[in-house]
Amino acid sequence: MKAVKLVAKRRLEVADVDKPAAGSANAVIKVINCGICGSDLHYWEAGAGMGGATDLIMGHEFGGILEDPGSRRDLKKGDRVTAVPANPCGECGPCKNGLLNLCVNVVKRPHPGLNSPGAYAEYIAVRPDMVRKLADTITDLSASMIEPSAVALHAVACASVKPGCRSLVVGAGSIGLLCAAWLRISGASYIAMTEVNEERRAIAQKLGDLDEVFDARDEKLNSKIKKATAGGVDVAIDASAADAGINSALLLLRPKGTLILAGVSLAPQSIMTLIALAKEITMKPIYAYLPDEFDAALDFIARGVLKPEKFVSRTVGLGEVQAAFEDLHSGKSKDVKIVVRL
Q1: Alpha-carbon distance 213 to 204, whole Å?
Q2: Nearest to 257 by CA among 227, 231, 235
Q3: Contact status, residue 221 vs residue 215, Cβ threshold 8 Å
Q4: 246 pLDDT above the threshold of 90
Q5: For the structural domain made of 152-285, what CATH number should be given?
Q6: 189 burial class (0-12, 13-18, 19+ CB within 10 angstroms)?
Q7: Quick check: 238 and 260 in contact, CB under 8 A?
Q8: CATH superfamily of domain region 2-144+312-341
Q9: Is the CB of residue 300 less than 8 Å from the CB of residue 185?
Q10: CA distance 339 to 342
Q11: Helix, coil or strand: residue 280
């Protein structure tokens, strides 16, 4: 089968690889679409996946057609499906406490698209218990947005948003825009977004569930948002992983506010801890999501409450993936979300 492999730093190539084998331990899915995630860009830069995995087939935001259900008797070949791209051990402390996203053995176990073959390929093998059947109301493109929608839901859930909450999202990528959507669903009365990229600001203003979108480099940013919120925001979600973005959020939060760190950076970061101390800010880094949150995202999309497909900028074929990564990495991309079509 055809797949895209990470062969070196910043280098992806289309290759012929073996189709994953069926069996009771594997469900095999014929991939239709797979989204490009920010974590994929980090691996692309490094030239290796989680734990230094080489020759990795990335991709973990996908939907497709079930080829073989493995041990699942409630599913059949031909079902439209997606899957939670996780493989928790079920035995460690966090797993036993229901925190499957925080499994301490994550690096030691194969996780699709992170350290084992993912969905930038015609077929993918996953744990049968992680497969989810898609409702007819979920389009193929929306199926590839369920996983990032779950990430954003986890971020908003960790913020304990209350009706009437004044909020800020830093970064107008797909996770930031999905966070804004969940904030609105959760009852936030005011949602501001900051972004440095002019094109993305325009897209956010047009498509996002936002009250105002600001240029993150505006020297009067703090005064503008504090005026709009009568003193600052209750909750801020950073989806930029940029020092400036995190520090801006700290400055804009009210005392006793909550800062969610949803962005990913592989480098040490400089944060104004004095501001966090002086305001007694609650800072919560978040990682991935729980399977129940994945299921909730799937349900909200199926019912039309959440409409993530609107954030997909374009689709590309396997032969165009390298160019898509280069564009996204440039910092000048006009795209919010690129989806690989198989």
Answers
A1: 7
A2: 235
A3: yes
A4: yes
A5: 3.40.50.720
A6: middle
A7: yes
A8: Medium-chain alcohol dehydrogenases, catalytic domain (3.90.180.10)
A9: yes
A10: 10
A11: coil
pTM, 2 dp: 0.97
pLDDT at 298 over 90: yes
Q: Are 192 and 168 in contact (CB under 8 A)?
A: yes
Taking the alpha carbons at both ends of the chain, their separation in whole angstroms is 11
- Answer yes or no: is pLDDT of 332 > 90: no
- Residue whose entry in the numeric block shows the structure tokens 């480098």: 267
Domain-by-domain residue ranges, the chain? 2-144+312-341, 152-285
Gap between the Cα atoms of 241 and 264, Å rounded: 5
The tokens describing 197, both together, are: 């990229």
For residue range 138-196, list pLDDT tens digits in order.
999 999 999 999 999 999 999 999 999 999 999 999 999 999 999 999 999 999 999 99
Would you put residue 90 in left (φ > 0), alpha (ψ -120 to 50) or beta? left
Judge contact between 311 and 336, C-beta under 8 A: yes
Whole-number pLDDT of residue 22:
87
